[in-house]
What we know:
Elements: H1 12-27, H2 30-43, H3 48-70, H4 75-90, H5 95-100, H6 105-113, H7 120-138
Amino acid sequence: MQEDINGDIKGEKQVRYLLAHEKTHIRHKDNLWRMLAILICCMHWFNPLAWITLRYFFADMELACDERTVRNFYEKERLDYVETLLAFTRRKTTMYAVAFGGGNVKARIKSVLAYRRFSIVALSVFIVIFAIMAIVVLSNK
């Protein structure tokens, strides 16, 4: 990880991971969801639970974005992604640190390193349980 005197990023891998993360935000329209959440929170400005919920919503959005970004990465790429996340966290002075390295980095790193795809069996069990719950809830006496 090389950086110049101003702390600007030099590594192509770091730029690739940063852009992959931000493209994932764009693909899932996270900025629109963020604005909607802020608008709702502003309408309920007097409710402290609204502000707490907003904070957790933003944290969950970042965790979900990290998971979607590393979904198709190999183990080595995930480690490089985490290394890049740490590098941006250490650089609090650059504009990239706020966008990519900000917010509960410890939980994000744990999530990226622990990420495992659903197996076919787990996915099948989930679908069966969901279908049973839907039938029970949607059926009349």
